[in-house]
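Exercise 7. Given the encoded structure of a 337-residue chain, write a plausible sequence.
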């Protein structure tokens, strides 16, 4: 049995990744600090589902605790490591930047040190579409320069990409960096728009719509994201013999077994269309509280997903009407409303 270590295992994406790996016959070790950034009961419920499998081991701890990951790598010798634990959220990083520094930067440093001492076959780390920052050229390509992050959250994630690159180069660690594009679906995060909008609409309260609704997002359905992650496990980057050996459009480093891969639908959906999908799924009209753009946010994201397709043959395709309907169905059943 292959062992996978998943950090952030009680999180939205992490719980789906763990479930998929268990279904594929992996033994899964999950690490999560169960932070109270949002409702801990939701994280506990996700873990309860995973704990039905005898092949799931759950550990509570902070990734940045010195030596914790190194000891876990030594004990478990995971072949695959998927690092999702992080302080997420653009807006909260204005209020509490230190938690991003600790969880994202120091936490990733601890992970890289552990991998240096006990190298896995493939290390896969979550970055974000926010790393593209102020870029205006769309769709976003992994090979585009991305130097102007708009929030401290994005800055910490971009920093982890660079940190990982240096470790991949120096210690020959195969590393894939994911840039996820607005992930949504059942069991989704209470701090994200879909959850907040659905809750408010069902309770008859207005929703806060930023930039007066003139926003576009490349929304990625969680099951599609997990399919992409699962397929990418089998494609560890290989250090190229020469820079000329790198195919056009591949973000592979010229000096390290390291690449960045966008995971998105490659479809920029208007926020108004997204809200309409929630209205349709809930059967209730939204009352809109139109507000200016929020600090740290970007008006649009749109993934070029060609590299993912080239590497795996897969392209995410669930549309927002279908994906939102699945979320609303889950929300109503879960909260009994
Ligand atoms: N959901 C999205 O749209 C999205 C988009 C881009 C990138 N990402 C990234 O994907 C990853 C997973 O995101 P998610 O949406 O599942 O978020 P999430 O908050 O649901 O999951 C993160 C999990 O990590 C845990 N955690 C936080 N800090 C920790 C620490 N210091 N040590 C150990 N555990 C800690 C939390 O308790 C949580 O369960 C994150 O790295 C996030 O930045 C998510």
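Solution.
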């Amino acid at each position: 049995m292959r062992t996978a270590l998943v950090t952030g295992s009680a999180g939205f994406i992490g719980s789906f990744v763990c479930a998929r790996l268990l279904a594929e016959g992996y033994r899964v070790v999950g690490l999560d600090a169960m932070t109270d950034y949002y409702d801990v009961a939701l994280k506990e419920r996700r873990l309860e589902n995973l704990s039905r499998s005898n092949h799931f081991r759950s550990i509570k701890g902070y990734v940045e605790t010195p030596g914790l990951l190194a000891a876990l790598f030594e004990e478990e010798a995971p072949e695959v490591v998927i690092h999702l634990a992080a302080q997420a959220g653009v807006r909260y990083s204005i209020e509490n930047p230190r938690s991003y520094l600790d969880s994202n930067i120091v936490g990733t440093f601890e992970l890289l040190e552990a991998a240096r001492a006990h190298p896995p076959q493939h290390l896969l780390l979550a970055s974000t579409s926010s790393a593209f920052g102020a870029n205006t050229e769309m769709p976003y390509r992994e090979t585009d320069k991305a130097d102007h992050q708009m929030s401290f959250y994005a800055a910490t994630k971009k920093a982890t990409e660079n940190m990982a690159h240096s470790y991949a180069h120096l210690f020959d660690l195969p590393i894939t960096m994911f840039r996820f594009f607005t992930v949504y679906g059942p069991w989704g995060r209470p701090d994200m728009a879909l959850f907040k909008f659905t809750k408010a609409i069902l309770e008859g309260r207005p929703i806060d719509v930023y930039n007066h609704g003139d926003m576009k997002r490349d929304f990625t359905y969680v099951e599609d994201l997990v399919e992409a992650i699962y397929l990418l496990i089998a494609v560890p980057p290989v250090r190229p013999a020469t820079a000329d050996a790198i195919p056009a459009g591949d973000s592979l480093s010229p000096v390290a077994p390291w690449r960045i891969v966008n995971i998105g639908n490659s479809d920029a959906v208007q926020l108004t269309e997204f809200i309409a999908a929630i209205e349709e799924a809930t059967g209730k009209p939204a009352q809109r509280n139109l507000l200016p753009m929020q600090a740290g946010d970007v008006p649009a994201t749109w993934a070029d997903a060609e590299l993912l397709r080239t590497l795996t043959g897969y392209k995410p395709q669930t549309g927002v009407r279908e994906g939102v309907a699945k979320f609303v169905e889950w929300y109503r059943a879960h909260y009994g409303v």
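Remark. The pocket of nicotinamide-adenine-dinucleotide is lined by residues 8, 10-14, 32-35, 43, 62-64, 84-88, 103, 107, 126, 128, 180, 182-183, 189 (CB under 6 Å). Students should compare their own answers with the one above.
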